[in-house]
User: Which sequence fits this backbone?
């Protein structure tokens, strides 16, 4: 029955660093979303580069992701078929992942609350009916890679995430051929030696921020159940976490439709170009242009990015080794 799941056999815990036992049978669930749903658009923001060890997109449009849930490590495999979502999950966190499946895929999102006030956004909103804002309910799994992305190139950030998760995480439960890894738990992050951060290309400012966050990981996770203003304040209470990092985290963990990213190098110019023909817009002008979408400003920026109406980049790309962005 849609919306129900049942075990085929008891899941086993993941075996750290080496898988020597056959994969257990999966828990399964089918769910019918309330409207169109594009898995790639919805879950794409969780992917940290093409070689993300915790996330895979297949050619058939299915998605596999490994998470550290409140119940333990889990692997989720999701595929859309004939308007229905079919999911399978493994590991101690399997039941939690399946319970959260509708929420993850935007069941609580309200795309109908968005009223386009620019022709570009109206056209993109119409062309992308399957866009819903995801909600993982997991703060640390989005906060840590967002800190790694502070003021460095995406390639550097993706490399750091890949190296650290593969070395200090654990092989994800489920089929061995998936090759996924679950990110380290808070204690393991706190024990990573300074030279390993350096080897992964992470400067002391970003590593110190992560260490401060993992020491209060439970307090950080509480932000997933908070309203946006309170959640932003909770995350920014950690030195080294500013509006950019908090917004990038809560867009994913909370599905926050108004968590607009400020402090980004490129986004103000993209929004300015799309809505006012000004590729040199700063944060202040971006927020002014997005004011008609208050409450839905993150969705508006997603639609702008999906419109393809972005300015060509003439400015030099960010160089390696830049100071971390707060």
Assistant:
């Amino acid at each position: 029955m849609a919306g129900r799941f049942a075990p085929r056999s008891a899941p086993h815990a993941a075996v750290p660093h080496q898988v020597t036992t056959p994969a257990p049978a999966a828990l399964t669930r089918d769910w019918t979303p309330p409207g169109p749903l594009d898995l790639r658009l919805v879950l794409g923001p969780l992917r940290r580069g093409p070689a993300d060890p915790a996330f895979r997109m297949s050619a058939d449009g299915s998605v596999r992701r490994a998470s550290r849930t409140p119940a333990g490590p889990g692997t989720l495999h999701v595929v859309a078929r004939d308007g229905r979502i079919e999911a399978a999950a493994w590991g101690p966190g399997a039941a939690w992942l399946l319970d959260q499946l509708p929420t993850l895929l935007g069941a609580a999102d309200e795309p109908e609350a968005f009223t386009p006030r620019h022709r570009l956004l109206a056209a993109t909103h119409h062309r992308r009916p399957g866009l819903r804002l995801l909600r993982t309910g997991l703060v640390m799994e989005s906060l840590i890679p967002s800190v790694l992305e502070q003021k460095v190139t995406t390639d550097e950030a993706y490399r750091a995430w890949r190296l650290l998760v593969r070395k200090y995480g654990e092989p994800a439960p489920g089929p061995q051929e998936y090759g996924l890894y679950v990110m380290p738990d808070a204690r393991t992050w706190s024990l990573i030696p300074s030279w390993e951060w350096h080897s992964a290309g992470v400067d002391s400012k970003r590593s110190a921020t992560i260490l401060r966050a993992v020491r209060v990981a439970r307090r950080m996770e509480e932000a997933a159940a908070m309203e946006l203003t309170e959640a932003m304040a909770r995350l920014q209470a950690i030195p080294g976490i500013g509006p950019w990092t908090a917004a990038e985290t809560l867009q994913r963990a909370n599905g926050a439709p108004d968590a607009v990213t400020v402090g980004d190098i490129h986004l103000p110019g993209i929004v300015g170009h799309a809505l006012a023909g000004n590729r040199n817009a700063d944060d202040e002008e971006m927020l002014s242009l997005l004011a008609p979408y208050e409450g839905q400003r993150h969705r508006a920026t997603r639609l702008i990015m999906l419109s393809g109406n972005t300015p060509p980049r003439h400015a030099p790309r960010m160089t390696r080794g830049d100071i971390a962005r707060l």
